[in-house]
Batch of 4 targets.
Target 1
Amino acid sequence: MPLRIAITPGEPAGVGPELLVKLAQHDFDAELIAFADPSLLLQRAADIGLPLELSEVDFAAPAQAHRSGHLKVASISCHSPVEAGSLNVNNAKYVLETLSRATDACKSGDCQGLVTGPVQKSIINDAGIPFSGHTEFLAERCEVDKVVMMLASEQLRVALVTTHLPLSAVPAAITGDNLQRVTEILHASLLRQFGCQNPRILVLGLNPHAGEGGHMGREEIDTIIPCLEQLRQRGWQLEGPLPADTAFTPRHLDKCDAVLAMYHDQGLPVLKYQGFGRAVNITLGLPIVRTSVDHGTALDLAGSGRADSGSFYAALTTAISMAENSSRNHH
Ligand SMILES: NC(=O)C1=CN([C@@H]2O[C@H](COP(=O)(O)OP(=O)(O)OC[C@H]3O[C@@H](n4cnc5c(N)ncnc54)[C@H](O)[C@@H]3O)[C@@H](O)[C@H]2O)C=CC1
Ligand SMILES: NCC(=O)COP(=O)(O)O
């Protein structure tokens, strides 16, 4: 029987809803369920001139593989009318409701994977709800205290020790305990979910030139090197800490399964330079499969039909294949 994949289109005024309409034009070996406002999806389909038929999902009925132009929906209503490209603080709770319901469907086993479209983090905060990202939200909703954000293209995987933090808060978050737990989750995921035998991880330093022997920062000497030395005693292949400016060169990348960056803008610009529009954001360490797009809400393109659905497509096919692997391993 096909698996069920929950999809949240994200910010209703962003490109997420129309990218989902574009995705729905393909066939997939899984049932796709949009946790969203049906009238929003139909409106956006009309705006960009694509056909779409919706029917309410019945979790008690057998799942059916997705066929072009149709979409199953778990209906959730927006709180205010949506205008593409214009954020409305009244719809922030709707965004979180779609996420909560879709996550809970995965936790209960109704769905076997979650694919999220982009949310506008600022408007959720403007609504008075502290929110730094799906990654942190999902960890809390799934009651897991540590998860890892990893973005992957076909050529490169980049995982992060810290995620959505102000730059000034990063050094204090690079503790031995945090680095160890992140490396453990990344190592286990590469081994079990990505088929890497004895994974090779390239770890970046925090400071320029990886601290230049302590003359440009001491985090490498005080924290990163001791942590890596300890983990290497398990026989793990951990290279580094390497200076980040030269780590992303073929000599190093050819030998590694993933790069572990210390913070968001140390690793992701390189990944996006190499693979923007085709890369997938994967949350490691959750009890559910969760993937997402590599881009944001692109309010400047919303409603135009010009946004590229490549990353959403990659996120969906990755989630289907991860869910299939995980379901095979459980049987
Ligand atoms: N997965 C998620 O929920 C993510 C959400 N965001 C959120 O999105 C909002 C806007 O963030 P920005 O930094 O402006 O990034 P953005 O990715 O929305 O836009 C950056 C540039 O890329 C272009 N772009 C983005 N997606 C595109 C697509 N599918 N096709 C063609 N061009 C595309 C935009 O038009 C813009 O020029 C923020 O609130 C941010 O937090 C950002 C990244 C991921
Ligand atoms: N840069 C990645 C990003 O902002 C998406 O994060 P998340 O919402 O998936 O946690």
Note: The pocket of LD2JLWAY (ligand 2) is lined by residues 133-135, 268, 281, 292 (CB under 6 Å).
Target 2
Amino acid sequence: MTHNDIKWQQHDVNAAQREALFGHQSAVIWFTGLSGSGKSTVANALEQALVAQGKHTYLLDGDNVRHGLCADLGFSAEDRTENLRRVGAVAGLMVDAGLLVLSAFISPYRNQRELVKSFIAPGKFIEVHIATPLEVCEQRDVKGLYKKARAGQISQFTGISDPYEAPQHADLVLDTSVTSLQDSVQQLLALLKKRQIIS
Ligand SMILES: Nc1ncnc2c1ncn2[C@@H]1O[C@H](COP(=O)(O)OS(=O)(=O)O)[C@@H](OP(=O)(O)O)[C@H]1O
Ligand SMILES: Nc1ncnc2c1ncn2[C@@H]1O[C@H](COP(=O)(O)OP(=O)(O)O)[C@@H](O)[C@H]1O
């Protein structure tokens, strides 16, 4: 496929104007971690806190995106990369629209997270590692998937039969086995303020 015949269209309304209308910066708060680590729970609570402050948000969640935009994809390394490429592109558009985007994807490989970051304007990609230990995630087994993975009923399950490459330079690391949900949200709000994304 070649894009030589497709030219980028410049529009007159830009991201900075949309941000000004919303009264806050746009950014992506990218949660990465094992299944059951707490990505969705923390992202959901942060979104509630941001909306309560009048911020404009959208939460992209792996489980939900895989019902639509990425319904054709599985869990091979290639499919996960394509899943995250599409989500990265969508998140980039949402940032351009002026939104605070929260995302909850395992995103297990460093190069996949770098790919996502490449879609986002510089300084607007905040990586949050939900570093809850595997033993705790497995004990929680929110969806019964670890049990199935251990029984060999699910292949390529992250942490069991597929790798998880922890971020080396995350903007924030939260372990939900020792940090309360309320504390996680407070730490995230403080980080967004420090980065001057929200006031
Ligand atoms: N093989 C395998 N490995 C990991 N996870 C699996 C697998 N099969 C199904 N699931 C369920 O799919 C959810 C992960 O989807 P993601 O889109 O976040 O994964 S990825 O970023 O593309 O790796 C994940 O959701 P969370 O538990 O919310 O993380 C699982 O519920
Ligand atoms: N301090 C905490 N922070 C976030 N989640 C917690 C915490 N303590 C227990 N949990 C539980 O852990 C589970 C995390 O599941 P979930 O958010 O779906 O994880 P993920 O999206 O990473 O798969 C939920 O059942 C949640 O109630």
Note: Residues 35-36, 40, 62-63, 66, 75, 80, 83-84, 105-108, 143, 145, 154, 156-158 surround PPS (ligand 1) (CB under 6 Å).
Target 3
Amino acid sequence: MIDIQHLTKRFASHTAVDDVSLAIGQGETLVLLGTSGCGKTTTLKMINRLIEPTSGSISVDGIDVVKQAGPELRRRIGYVIQDGGLFPHYSVAQAIATVPKLLGWEPAAIQERIHELMAKLQLPETILNRYPAELSGGQRQRVGLARALAIKPPVVLMDEPFGALDPFTRRHVRRELFGLNELRETTVVLVTHDVSEAIELADRIALMDKGRIVQIGPPDELLNQPANDFVRDFLDDQPQRISR
Ligand SMILES: Nc1ncnc2c1ncn2[C@@H]1O[C@H](COP(=O)(O)OP(=O)(O)OP(=O)(O)O)[C@@H](O)[C@H]1O
């Protein structure tokens, strides 16, 4: 579904993404995991052309992304960021309707899809006319996802989608969302630095360090057969008391 070949991004003399190659299958959830600054977000943003690569290639569904206009590509690829990424002056209903409207859907079809998504994401219809500032963090997150899923895109990119939530709400919202049939059929690339989130959600984890993929595989493989000490230490995030 997504094929990344020798992808490199340099910002001046700094190499943020360094010769990354990976293939992501249809319906797969691939988690890009790693410390702050290791190049996860830069990799993600090159898939929907918010950032242009220095070299290398990315194809989505067999088509090179550089052969597609950025705005058109971004309409077809869902994108969810921390705290939902909602426009403050768009109501919930307007936010979810944005891309279907751009694609010329009939108003009745848009309304039907809005109601369907509200039900699926367990959002009360009473918030349809509210603005993001009038929602809870968990609701904003779900509305952000509803907006990203509105046209049933084959691919959804998520950048720390639960990062703004407290640990309890975070677990709850992510279990709810990833339990949706709709998301199961979608190819998801998710960026996080949260090890338990990666283990819980990923079909495969790509653990990154300094712009490179250190190990890629199913969570069990990284846990049981870490390629090196970095992988072992990174995944060993059990809380430990500091002795004094
Ligand atoms: N526009 C930019 N100009 C210069 N350097 C940049 C730019 N964007 C990112 N970088 C640098 O590239 C590196 C990778 O950044 P990136 O945002 O991809 O990391 P990340 O793994 O997503 O980190 P985080 O989890 O903190 O978001 C960092 O060192 C960052 O400072």
Note: The chain has ten helices and ten strands.
Target 4
Amino acid sequence: MADHEPMWTVFDSRETLAETLAEAVAAALEDGIDERGYGLLAVSGGSTPARFMQALSGKPLDWSKVTVVQVDERFVPETSPRSNAGLAKTNLLQNDAAAASFVTLYRDVAEVAASADSAEAELATLPWPLDAVILGMGPDGHTASFFPDAKELPQLLDPAGTRSVMAVHAESAGEPRLTLTLPRLVSARFLALHIEGEEKRFALEAALAADTILPIRAVIENAAEGIEIFWAP
Ligand SMILES: O=C(O)[C@H](O)[C@@H](O)[C@H](O)[C@H](O)COP(=O)(O)O
């Protein structure tokens, strides 16, 4: 259990947050490339990351040595407006970052479990741990696809778990999901939580103070290198 309080950085604008976070992630990737010869990055989906992804896409690092993976994905094809892979391809994998490799979680198979198993095999070939992870959060305290009502939640949040990616079934999630597991996320060398707006700030503060451990708090409390919270109104 990590014993450090999360570090909050409050920004006066979402633009300044995006640029600062992009700089921090680029630095973490450059450290990985300098020290290990490659950089491994995991990005979330949803609506918050687009501006940050666009800022990161223009950072002048050796993107040919970077592999981008997804923190989580909806079980939909890339052509769906719900696709996180579509979001990353449109906003991150352009400009300088177009040279990066991209490993997606969705596979065009009938069952989400088969998609998870196929992605697991591909992720097994990557040079873990992650150099940088950017998480988002929902007002219900979910992060990645660790939804509080997920059938698989105990396995998803197990710090001793051995899977890299799992299928998720949760009423509150809408469609079935695919998500990296807690151990893969919390072992990152740079772990950031990117949230915006008063509702999410309140939800996070409440989650940190509550008796019940919501998924976001489980991640924060298991973050080996701590977690940095990037917040703008
Ligand atoms: O697939 C997803 O939706 C995300 O990865 C998820 O964990 C996201 O970070 C939160 O739901 C916040 O989403 P918003 O940025 O849209 O509020």
Note: The chain has one domain: 9-219.
